[in-house]
Amino acid sequence: MRSVLFAILIGLVGAALLHIVIILALPQFTGKDANTRVLGLYEMDSFFALANEPGPTGLANDDPFLRVAVCGFSIDVAPVRFQASGNVPFWSLSVFDANSNEVFSMNDQTSVNGNLDLVVATPIQLVELRKTPTEKLAQSIMVEMPEQQEGYAVLRVLSPASSYEEAARSFLAESGCEPLRR
Amino acid sequence: MFRIPLLVALALSVAFGVGIASAVSALKATVGFGAIALGPWVAFPDAQTANADPYARAHRARAGKLLYGGAEGLQFTAAVDDAGAKLSAACSYDITGLTPPARFWTLYAANENDVALRPGPELPSAFNALMVLRQADSSFVIHVSAEAQPDNWLAIRQAGAFKLVLTLLDTPTAGSSGVVDLTMPKIVKTGCGDA
To answer: Quick check: A26 and B17 CB within 8 A?
Structure first.
């Protein structure tokens, strides 16, 4: 009887260890995390507007009043520039790294003139950009992404009533997420 | 003679059974630590950041949702009413009061997997700050019910439990960490069944 109790106790210690291992290791092997889903859309370097119903990747416009577009990007070779403009009541952008940690987020009131113009770069690329300022990047917000070279961006546009729908759709359709060429 | 293998098997089955079950149930039970709870409404302002705890990281990797950044907004969900009872589609509820300061808010009902309920294109399934009918003091009353209601009616056509999701867009609430006295709308049960 004593040895049975001892076996259960050993089992519980093992269970505690396994619990910790599962929780810590899970982000590496779920295959369902947001970054994998965004990459599963096979759309690099442009914003992909999500549908209202979940597609094969499971991503959709969760909120009935927000239209969402996602873009997977890599700043390995060149910085990436996000651009969008249009007459919408509210938009917001979040940039996440490949581990789904937030790197930067903004909305239309924290932007210049209400237009989205954001450059995400590695620290070295950023030094290059600052050394040789160009006219076309004069209004751009520069953001440093130190640790990782890959990630995804989420652009949300508010469409509070059906009459705003077209403006929201065209805002997303005309938004850009392209490698910066100089 | 089979005593030792039997004991090893027992220890291993306890380790794997309890370990896996406890990890899965912990991830199902909560999004992680660091929640802001205002009455029945719960939000996780740090869940999308690098400061998120291991449970929050595991949960967000498993759910795979596109979370709201700090400057975008804060999403509150409520799975219970003000009395602490689980929200059930068999009952009717009134959501009354005001939201914390935000540039805009949206409200919709979702199922237990956080997917928005879509009762049908002809039914009002969601509200926002622009379309809600307000009283003279700018507070609002939203009736959540499976049956048609006057004024603000949030239709739920579904059996079982549901959640309410209130998203505050561009809100200072995300950074306040509970220091400011925030008042969320109340969720009060008004009746159950056909009565």
So the answer is: no
CB distance B10–A17 less than 8 Å?
no
Residue B47 main-chain phi, psi, to 5 deg: -65, -25
Domain ranges of chain A: 2-30, 36-179
Q: Give the contacts of B46 (CB within 8 A, at least 6 positions apart).
A: B34, B52, B56
How many angstroms separate the CA atoms of A173 and A92, rounded? 15
ipTM (interface predicted TM): 0.85
Q: Where are the alpha helices (DSSP H) in A30-137?
A: 34-39, 123-131
The 10s digit of each residue's pLDDT in A85-95 is 888 999 999 99
What is the CATH number assigned to the segment(s) A36-179?
2.60.40
Other beta carbons within 10 angstroms of residue B51's beta carbon come to 11
- CB pair distance less than 8 Å for B130 and A161: yes
Predicted TM-score (pTM) above 0.95: no
The DSSP bridge partners found for residue A120 are A80, A143
Token duo for residue B193: 């069944």
Best residue of A8, A47, A65 to probe chain B, by most B CBs closer than 10 Å? A65
